[in-house]
Amino acid sequence: MIILVTGAGGPTGQAVSGYFRKLGHTVIGVDKQDVDLLDRAAVQDLAARIDREHGRVDGVVHLVGGWRGSGSFAETSLDDWNLLHDLLIRTLQHVSLAFEPLLRRSENGRFVIVSAKAAQSPSAGGAAYAAAKAAAEAWTLSLADALAGTGGAATILVVKALVNDAMRADRPEARFPGFTDVNDLAAAIGGLYDRPAAQINGTRLDLTS
Length: 209
Known about the structure:
By secondary structure, this protein is of the alpha/beta class. The chain has helices at 11-22, 40-54, 78-104, 127-147, 165-170, 182-191, 197-200; strands at residues 2-6, 26-30, 59-62, 110-116, 153-159, 162-163, 180-181, 203-206. It is built from 7 helices and 8 strands; from the N terminus they run E-H-E-H-E-H-E-H-E-E-H-E-H-H-E. The strands form 2 sheets. The protein has a 6-stranded parallel beta sheet with strand order 2-1-3-4-5-8, sandwiched between helices. Strand 3, helix 3 and strand 4 form a beta-alpha-beta unit.
């Protein structure tokens, strides 16, 4: 399979890329130093290159993220919203619009984003983050509607937060309750290929339960 991982340079991207590479799949990992995902033309060029080389894409795992919060609702910074809009929504728009045609050519294509419980249960100080995540979910569900009836599926994986080995090493006393390990997330993404597209398309899969 041909798997594109955006945000591949971080611990989550490394875990997901490593998971698919160990299974023998071709992983195309991009991070901000490779492609500016806020530049739509650059993303379209990436899609065109993958189209020329492979003719399709079997998975797009969009892992570009970020978090900002405030002490209270009234203290919310709209500068934080602008940042989160770009990171969580605009990059998603560019990637999904460019790669939807390539996903359609796959017999078993998967588009995945990672969302947060906060999108459904926002806190007072997390308005900007929760709103951006909710918008990203809505966009992904629209993509799912576009993929309905094809071999592809767009799916939202929901976590409280993610944890990796470096975080545990930095805070050995911490328990990280309810957090999802990045390797478990990678396995959950891989498991999407074991289920029919129609069963998972347009769904929110909660990894915290």
